[in-house]
Hints:
By secondary structure, chain A is an alpha/beta fold.
Amino acid sequence: MKAVEITGLDVRYGAARILEEIAFSAEQGEMIGIVGPNGSGKTTLLKAMSRIVTPESGEIYYNNQDMADLTFRQLAREVAVVPQEIAIQFDYTVREIVTMGRHPFIGRFASESREDHAICTRAMKLASVDHLAETSVNAISGGERQRVLIARALAQEPKVLLLDEATSNLDISHQIEILSIIRRETVRASIISVFHDLNLASSYCDRILLLKDRQIHAMGPPAEVLTRENIRAVYGVDVIVRKHPLTGRPYILLMYDHERGAPQSTRIHILCGGGTGSELMQTLHAQGMQITTGVLNILDSDYLTAKELGIMVISEPPFSPISEESVSILKRCLTEADLIILLNMPIGRGNIENIRVLNGYKEKVVMYGMDSGIQDYSGGEATRLITDLCGCGALRIESIQEMQSFLSSKRLHEKKDKSGMII
Amino acid sequence: MSPRNPLILIALFVTLLLSMAAAVLTGPTSIPIGSILTNPVYYQIISEIRVPRVIAAVLVGAALATAGTAMQGLFRNPMADPYIIGTSAGGSLGAAISIVFLAGLGLPVFAFIGAIGSTFLVYMIARRGGKVPVETLLLTGVALSMFLSAMLSFLMYTAGKSLHQIIFWLMGGFWTVSWSQVHVGLLIPIGCVAIYIFARDINIISLGEEEAMHLGVNVEQLKVILLFISSLLAGIAVSIAGAIGFIGLITPHIMRTIVGPDHRVLLPAAILAGSILLLWADTFARTFGNEMPVGIITSFFGAPFFMYLLRRRMRA
Lengths: 423, 316
């Protein structure tokens, strides 16, 4: 039995179409995150699901019951909603607000039973607001008030819990605290939540529903939906998608100047590996430099960064040594490059060829971040080669700021050369 | 519910009973308790004038307090009062029509029809696609009240010698009250109980309409019920005593600061307090005020008190 099943949902406000052809279902105990840009219809979808707005067509089922057949009272026993934030005009106490969650269960001429009070006390404990029970809701902080609304929703003992960006006005510690409380409720309820923050959605949801222009653009596990391509298509920005080291879920990094700088003529080849080159690649890429990199093994994190940025990368299959073909491509890249940056990467027998070829290009080599010592796993050869390069006067640069000022002085230098040529 | 709230309700109830007894014994003619049953004139004054008048003041006070509390909860606006959706403007116009064209014949009926009719009109104008947003309702009420007041002003302008009578009625008072009006007023307790049945729903709708829907309240239905009963209560009150101001606005305020916002306690507390306040205002009017319209007294004391509450609210 599906906890939620929606088919062919269309919503309009007057002539404006807000949602079209929405269809999805949620399993028992599943947490689904609804994401999408402003105006894509996220909040309206939630409002249609809580019968605040009436859809033009389509059906919404909760545990096989058509929502249209349920009274408000019956619906409130199935579905609870946590709003983004609400202004409460009168000074109700926290307990009074939470107790309102029992309203759909109490008869018109009855008042709360002992059991109702026990449920409310439990809900307040779960949302850790029990110590505030007798305090006015207008005398507590925003984070506490949000937890009160969650306690009220829990007091409804819903089978489906809907959240409308319930944590977006809170600081990070409260966001995590509240989402963890909610996540635990999947034991009893299915949860459908609107998120603005893609990383929060990715970390807490089993599946993500990505809305674009009133329709579902993609739906599935975070790793399938929160891809660079989908985010580009829906939000129109370039991002870097990584795996979160602890959760293994996709983690989205924003590229803050996502307008790439004007393309530069400077060609740079970056020799890196094991994640040493990612930061530099991103910085230089954003400045519009023409970058090549490699040779790298496929699945090396620097390889993934290069692929995400669309940088040309010479690659070998995982755990394979560098082939002769790759070496010849590398040499071509090094010949064309104005600058070769060698990073302090771990060097072993698999990738030492990258250093050996440098012999012919000594004058172009800049070393970056070598101060922490050479990571030599090649039995001394790497150390010897690099020391040799240093002996030939290769420049050593230690910070990204230093690198940037070096590059800009170099550009200046080039311009002077060119103007000199004109004269 | 705070454990002291039942005590407050009991104290208010006892105060009301004592006030009623005191009010019956107070008046321009001083009547010794011992001679009420022996002296037929005294008996007449007590049974035909003071008792119906005291009961009427208590009932009208209860009606205004109930309607005011319900409107403030429904509109989520502590500035709302029973007249906010056109009740007093409609009632006043109805009364003026009766005075000008029928020499006051059927005045209470006209006032009642005017009060109920204007509320109904406001509701129908604000209604769209089966829904009545409270903001629209509020603004429509203000607009229609102004329109009806313009018609009232026109009537007064052309009223000639009955102008005095209209003005006197508009200020509100109990000097014409007799047992027959008290009988009509007995509908008031029924209305109060009917509103009280929805006390928990008023709590919830005072958080907002969407919130109330999430918590299983049939919001549109609740609005119709509350508006209907409240305008009925206000309409009866207006037809008995004219448009008495400030009782419906202030009593919910005062009692909210004392018993809190839970309408299951607030409603009975406001009902008792409204009855006590209006009873004392009327007793003052007929004893020391030379039958001054009671509306003058409630506004005279009510408005400064209201300003005091506003100042306190701003500081909070």
